UniProtKB/TrEMBL annotation:
The lineage of its organism: Bacteria, Pseudomonadati, Planctomycetota, Planctomycetia, Planctomycetales. This is Cytochrome b6-f complex iron-sulfur subunit. The chain crosses the membrane at residues 38-64. It comes from Planctopirus ephydatiae. The keyword Iron applies. Residues 1-22 are annotated as: Disordered. The keyword Membrane applies. SUPFAM superfamilies: ISP domain (SSF50022). PROSITE patterns: RIESKE. One of its GO terms (molecular function) is metal ion binding.
Length: 217
């Protein structure tokens, strides 16, 4: 006698297969969070790039700003070009030649420069004092007011036509030569030029004191 295998019916506990529509719906539901995560990641990445790009672009702008201004200034007139050349060689504009007395009386003038500290500029800062003398052949002689003896400031005494140091009584003639033996050398003469517009340019330097030689410090 042959025994047929038994087939379980639904009533006996078999689990029916889910419909195809349910499978598709479940798959779509499982994929939805992944899309949301991807969109959120893209938005976060965009926000990060924007946050980085803004300060970086600002920093680049600050870095290039002096260079751009420098390149833009090169398009000026020939007069500005001459002035730039004088400044580049260490000469500073001091006074118009015509403002100096024709009789050669010394004129005391303060040397000023624009001091740059990182990105800040402090204009017209005094760095020293000089004496200028005009001559009939349209030349000018410039002396530092620092006494070569020990570095005090010399005064011009008009009543005696001399330069005098009040610290140790050094005395100098109008041509800068020492009138006594206190100072080891004459007054320090500075390089000077007169441009076509009549402006006197001076190369301001300071020198070691207490020695016979003229040595730039």
């Amino acid at each position: 006698m042959t025994t047929k295998p038994s087939v379980a019916s639904e009533s006996e506990g078999a689990h029916p297969s889910p419909p195809a529509e349910a499978i598709v719906s479940q798959t779509s539901t499982d994929l939805a969070p992944s899309r949301r995560d991807a969109v959120a990641a893209m938005l976060a990445c965009g926000s990060f790039l924007a946050a980085v790009a803004i300060p970086v672009s600002a920093a680049v702008g600050l870095t290039l700003d002096p260079l751009l201004r420098k390149s833009g200034s090169s398009a000026g007139s020939s007069t500005e070009g001459n002035a730039a050349a004088e400044l580049a060689s260490g000469f500073l504009p001091i006074i118009s030649f015509d403002e100096l007395p024709e009789d050669g009386t010394p004129v005391k003038s303060v040397v000023r420069i624009d001091v740059r500290d990182a990105w800040q500029v402090f204009p017209d800062q005094p760095v020293g004092t000089i004496y200028l003398r005009r001559f009939p052949d349209r030349t000018v002689v410039v002396f530092s007011d620092i006494c070569p003896h020990l570095g005090c400031k010399v005064d011009y005494e008009a009543d005696q036509s001399r330069f005098f140091c009040p610290c140790h009584s050094s005395a100098f003639a109008l041509d800068g030569q020492a009138m006594n033996k206190v100072s080891p050398r004459p007054l320090d003469q500075l390089e000077a030029r007169i441009d076509p517009a009549g402006m006197v340019w001076v190369k301001y330097q300071e020198f070691r004191t207490g020695i016979p030689e003229k040595v730039v410090v």
